[in-house]
Task: structure prediction
Amino acid sequence: MDDLFGIPMAAWIGQLVIGLINGSFYALMSLGLAIIFGLLHVVNFAHGAQYMVGAFVAWILLEYFGIGYWPALLITPVVVGAFGLLIERLMLRRLYGIDHVYALLLTFGLSILMEGVFRLKYGATGQPYPNPISGGLDVGVTFIPGYRLWVIVVSLVLCLTTWFVIERTKLGSYLRAANENAALVRTFGINVPRLLMLTYGLGVGLAGFSGAMAAPIYQVNPLMGTGLITVVFAVVVIGGMGSIIGAIISGFALGVVEGLTKVIYPEGASVVIFVVMIITLVFKPNGLFGQEAK
Result:
């Protein structure tokens, strides 16, 4: 069958792949936000800027140091995560225990500052990054570039691995316990402030990793995280604030919904996720996978 509802199959498959690619970034970014909010109760509005920094770190490593994509993919989340550790240690730690709005305002200010610094240094014009994987997969009705397939697979594996570590390992149980009862966790000899700092670093590192993966697909520019963070917050709300599995499932699913909407009704593709968010908030205010407030 060459057509479905009068639309060529190549269009359906092409947009499905694009939806999965966008969903990969939505899921990874939402996962980082869910970890930070779920375990630290911090609304990290700087997440989009940290994603942008990750893309620039990968580009700088190549442009100034000749370090290619594959080593940069390992180095970038460490560099961005370390930057996150510094933010948590010097700034966010002082705001724990008070109204969440102060942390939101702080991270919002940091996002503007980071975007301004990179825009001042590199301008608003995007910087190209070479494709590290040539070739692709011919599925008959369309051709899927190899790097796009790589992004989808790696994002899924990383998301599921992170979920497993947090939900099914002793380290993850310590992280969750530190959020619920820090005093009890301290009785086991665990340094709770360091644990919380590493948690923020992990969430920020995921944003940096996402940025490094995005560099060969989207041009590296200071505003690349601005539009994305709005969508990602909507994804997190739909999945349930702080829900790890909700962030993963909602991220991939909404990326597909957005992609297929471009085939059915292109004018609505840019707002479909926000329509889903509104409907979710009306009928299930805690999100699809969120827990009821106690």
